[in-house]
Structures are given as structure tokens and as C-alpha cells.
Amino acid sequence: MREHARGMSRSAHLCSDCDAVCCRLTVVLQPEDRVPERFTARTRAGLHVMARDEQGWCVAVDAARMCCSIYDTRPGVCRRFVMAGPYCRASRAEYSAQAARGIPLALE
Ligand code: SF4
Ligand code: SF4
What we know:
Largest sheet: 2 strands, antiparallel
Number of strands: 4
Oligomer: single chain
Bound molecules: iron/sulfur cluster
Radius of gyration: 14 Å
Number of domains: 1
Strand order of the largest sheet: 1-2
Structural class: alpha+beta
Shape: globular
Distance between the termini: 24 Å
Number of helices: 2
């Protein structure tokens, strides 16, 4: 979702084989980010973040096309997230472990 799959081997963690797991992580917005307000929220602690739906995914996910609907103006945090990097792998591992344990993949 966050990086293109160009140049990655078949055995790598590809976005095309993923449920946009990184788009369930908290995305804290920075002053330089230009995200439409309707996609954002405030945490109890007052952080400006990407809003998430009741199942935990960022509201900017285009579920029909499995892509970021605001790709050209996505937050800097998303731009820096590296496909098949350590956070990607950790997120996917945690997501798979939760699913295997039957833990609902939704926010509280
Ligand atoms: S978790 Fe990794 S593989 Fe999945 S969409 Fe995000 S960057 Fe792509
Ligand atoms: S803004 Fe786009 S890339 Fe970032 S979490 Fe939301 S859907 Fe994913």
C-alpha cells in the first residue's frame, strides 16, 4: 500500500499480497501534511491523526481498489514506511498472529 512493489522478489512482503496492514497503524500527522480534515481525527491525548474505521483501517483506504485514496497527498509517515522493512514485517506478523488466535481485527 505505501510503497510500490517495483524490484521486489516474489518472496518479499509485497503490498499486493497484503491486507493493507500498515494502514491500521496510528498515523500521526505533522504540520506539513496536507490531508483533508474529513480523513483526520484527534486522539484523547490531542494528537492529530488519520481517522480509522470501526475495523481499524485508515479511512483513506479505498477498499474496492485496495489502495490509498489520497496517495499523492498521503502523510509523510506513510511516505517513509518501507515495504518489506522491519515495521512492515512486524505489522504483518502481528496481524497474522491475531488472526490465527481468533482475535477480532478491530479497534476497541
Ligand atoms: S504492511 Fe507492508 S506489505 Fe502491507 S501494505 Fe503496508 S507496506 Fe505494503
Ligand atoms: S493515508 Fe493512505 S497510506 Fe496512509 S494509512 Fe491512510 S490509506 Fe494508508
